[in-house]
Amino acid sequence: MIDRKLLLSDLQKQVKSLEKDLREQVESVQEVYARLRPEYDQAFRVGRTAATWTVWRDERITQAAVAWVLATVFVRFCEDNGLLTDPYLAGPGDRLVLAEEAEAQFFHDHPDKTLRDWLHAGFDAIAATQAGRSLFDRRHNPLYQIPLSHDAARKLIAFWRRRGEDGNLVHNFCDDSWDTRFLGDLYQDLSEAARETYALLQTPEFVQEFILDLTLTPAVAEFGHDVVKVIDPTCGSGHFVLGAFHRLMKQWEEHAPNRDLYERVHLALDAVHGVDINPFAVAIARFRLLVAAMRASNLKTLADTAGYTFPLHLAVGDSLIKHREGVLFGEDPMTEFAYATEDLHEHPRILASGRYHVVVGNPPYIRIEDKGLKQAYRQMYDACSGNYALSVPFAQRFFQLAKTADPDGKGAGHVGQITSDSFMKREFGKKLIENFFATRVNLTHVIDTSRAYIPGHGTPTVILIGRNTNLNRPGTIRTIMGIHGEPSTPADPSKGLVWQAIINQIDRPGSESEWISVADLPRETFCKHPWNLSGGGKSALARTIEKSGTPLGSAIEGVGRTTHTGLDEAFYLPKQSTVTLGLTNATVPVVLGEDIRDYFLSASIATLFPYDENGTARQLSDAEHLFYWPNRTALRRRLDFGQTPEERGLRWFDHSMFFAKRYRVPLSIAFAFVATHNHFVLDRGGKVFNRSAPVIKLPEGASEDDHLKLLGVLNSSTACFWLKQVSYPKGGDPIGGEGARVSSEGWSDRYEFTGTKLQDFPLPSAYPLELARELDRLAQRLGTVTPAAVAAAGVPTRER
C-alpha cells in the first residue's frame, strides 16, 4: 500500500539531492555542457526563451532530477505489481534479495559498468517492450540529457531498498487495482521550482468528469464513439486523457461487445491525445495510460504486451506554438525549433487546427515571465492584450483545435475548460471577451466555480463550455452564478455544498439555492467586458444601477497615481529618517494603499522628491546627492517603455513617471487599490500617491464641495456593492489552506479597485453633500487625536 504523504516527502528530498549532483555534472563534465549550451543559445536566438543561461540551465536540471526520480518510481511500481518479471531495485517478499543478486551478477558480467548503468538496465527492461518504449526514449527523456554520478546513483538505489522497523520496505507500491493517481500528487508537488515555473496543478477527478459529461458525452452522441477524437492540450499528468480513455472503452464494450478486447483497447487509445510542455508531466501521463491500457487488456506483465501495439498519442511540446502549421509563422525559426526533450514532430498533426471533436483541459493560469515567449504568443493570438495571463491564449487555442462547423453550423467540436476567471474583470480579458467569445465561438455554459471547494485551486475559477462556431448560436447561455462559498472545508470535495448545488441545478434554469443561481442569460450579457457572475439577483441589480446615471469618467479629469519611482527602494525612507539625514525639505509624504481607511489618510513614509512645490524639476542639494549616489547604477538602468530615464529625456535621479499636473492641483480623492471595501478619502495636497493608492482628479476649478459630493457617493453602500460586482477578487481569509479559493467570511474578500472600472461607475442625480461633509469633519478630528498625532505635537503627558 502506498503511503502518499511519506512518499512525496521522501521523493522531494531525493529531487533536491539529485539537483545538486546534476548541477555538478553540467559544470564539470564537458560533454554535458557541450550538449546543453548550444541548445540554449539556439533557443535564445530564435526567441523561444529570453531567460539567462543560469536560469534556463537550472530549469533543465530540475527536469532531469525529476525524470530520474520518476523513472525509478515507474520501475518500483512495475516490480511491486509484477509488471516486471525480474526485479532491479527491490520488491515485496524475496524480490529485494533477487534484485541485489541480479545487480551483483550484472557487475560480474560487466566490471566496467557503474550503478548508473544498473539503473539504466531497469529502464531498458521497460523500454524493451513496445508498450514501454516511449517512457524511456533516449532521444527525448530528460534523464538521458544529464547523467547521474556513480555516487548519486548508489544513494538513489539505497533509498529504494530502505527497510522499516518491521523489516519490510519503507515504500510499497503493491496495488491490486493498479491505481496510478498517486502520480498526480508527485506531478504537482515533487518540485517547488517546477510547480511555480509550469503552474503545475492536477484537475480533481470530479471536475474532470463534470467537464467530460458536458463535452465528450454529447460529442459521442453526435459523432459516434468510433469517430470521436479527444485532446487535452495541457494534459499534465493525464487526468482528462485517462478519463476520456475509460469512457470510450465503455462505449466500445457497449456497442461492440463481441469485438476483440485488444482491438477495443487499441481503438480507444487511438482516440485520445495530449500535449504538455513539461516532459515529466507527459512521462507520468504515458505511464498511467499504459498501465490503464494493460489492465483493460487483461495483461499481467510488460512481457505479455509483446505483439501488441498501444498507440500513446502523448507529446512533449508547447501547445501554443503552432508547429509546422504555417498558420502565422511559416518558416519562422521559432516554430521549427524544438528542445531535445520535445517530440511533437513524432506525432504528426497532433496540434492541427480543427482536428478534434472534443478539446478539454485545465490550462495554466500564470502570467508568463519570459518576455520572448510573451511577445510570440501575443503575435499568434489576437485575444492577448496588456499583461495577459496564459489562460487567455489557451482559451483561444482550445477552440482552434476543435473541429469547425459546416456551412449549416453543424459538426463543430465541443470545448470544455476550467480556467482562471481573472479575464472576466481584469483589463487584459477585454479582447478575449469582446473580440473572441462574443463574435467567433458559441459559448453554451459559463459556470462560476470560484465559490466551490476545489483542492489546490487557490485562484478563482470558471468552467467554460462551448463549440467552435458562431453560426446558429442560441440567444442565451446557461449560466451558473455564485451566491455563497463553502461554510467550511468539506471532508470530500466532490460532496461540497457548492459543488453539489452545481451538479444538481445545472439542468434547472431558473433555480436558486443558498449557494448558486442558474439562469439562461441573454448572449448579449457576455459580449461586453467585464462579466459579472454573482447570483441571487446581484448581477441583475448591478445592471440596473448601471442604467441609472452617467459614468463617473465623464465628470472627472482622470484617475491614476501621482508618481512612479521605478525603484522604490532607492527613494522611499521612514519619515523620521528625513530629519536624521537632513532631507526634510527634499522629501514629500508618499501614500500607500494600506494608509487609506475609513475616511482617514496617513503617510508613514516619505519619498525623495527632486521637484519643487509646483512639480518642476529642481537642482539637488549635497545631502540629496549623497543619498542618491550609492544607487546611481541601478537608477540609471531603470526601464520604462523599454528605455532608461536618460533615453527618455529624464535625469537619472528623476522619478520614472511623475505626473506634475496631478501633483500641482491640491484637491484629490484617494482610494485603496486593493481592499475589502471602498475606502475613499479627500486629500488637500502636499503628498504623492503610488500605484496602490491612486487618486481621482476633478476638472480644473472644482471646489471642495464638488469633491465632497463625489466622496459621499463613492463611500456609499451602493458604490461598494457595484464595485464588488465588477472588480477582480484578490482573495481573503481562505478555508482549507491552499485547498481552494473560498473565504471563510465574505467580508474578508479583498478586491482590486482599478481606475478603469471606477470610471464606469454610474453617478446619481442627487448627492449626499451634508453627510459627506460631516463624515469628513469627523475623520479630520479623529486624525488629530491618534497616538501618532498626539506624540508628534508634544510630549504625551497624562493631560494631553
Describe the protein.
- The longest helix is centred in the first third of the chain and has 28 residues.
- This protein is of the alpha/beta class and 800 residues long.
- Helix 1 crosses helix 2, helix 9 crosses helix 10 and helix 24 crosses helix 27.
- The strands form six sheets. It has a nine-stranded mixed sheet, sandwiched between helices. A four-stranded antiparallel sheet has the order 10-22-18-20, with helices on one face. The chain has a four-stranded mixed sheet with strand order 12-16-13-21.
- The chain contains 28 helices and 24 strands.
- Strand 14 and strand 15 form a beta hairpin.
Strand order of the largest sheet: 3-2-1-4-5-7-6-8-9
Helices, by number, come to: 28
- List how many beta strands DSSP finds: 24
Largest sheet: 9 strands, mixed
Average pLDDT, to the nearest integer? Answer: 90
Oligomeric state of the chains in view? single chain
Name the beta content range.
5-15%
Radius of gyration: 31 Å
The helix-and-strand class reads alpha/beta
Shape: globular
pLDDT below 50 for ≥5 consecutive residues: which ranges?
324-330, 736-740
- Percent range of helical residues: 25-40%
The N- and C-terminal alpha carbons lie at a distance of: 71 Å
Secondary structure: elements and pairs:
Blueprint: H1 4-28, H2 30-46, H3 53-80, H4 95-109, H5 115-127, H6 150-160, H7 182-189, H8 192-198, H9 205-223, E1 230-232, H10 239-255, H11 261-270, E2 272-276, H12 279-296, E3 313-316, H13 333-336, E4 358-361, H14 371-380, H15 391-401, E5 414-420, H16 430-437, E6 442-448, E7 461-467, E8 476-482, H17 497-505, E9 516-522, H18 538-546, E10 558-560, E11 563-564, H19 568-571, E12 572-574, H20 575-580, E13 587-591, E14 596-597, E15 600-601, E16 605-608, H21 622-628, H22 632-636, E17 657-658, H23 660-664, E18 668-671, E19 674-675, E20 680-683, E21 688-689, E22 695-697, H24 704-714, H25 717-726, E23 728-731, E24 750-752, H26 755-758, H27 769-784, H28 787-793
Parallel strand pairs: 1-2, 1-4, 2-3, 4-5, 6-8, 13-21
Antiparallel strand pairs: 5-7, 6-7, 8-9, 10-22, 11-17, 12-16, 13-16, 14-15, 18-20, 18-22, 19-24, 23-24
Helix pairs in contact: 1-2, 1-3, 1-7, 3-12, 9-10, 10-11, 10-12, 24-27
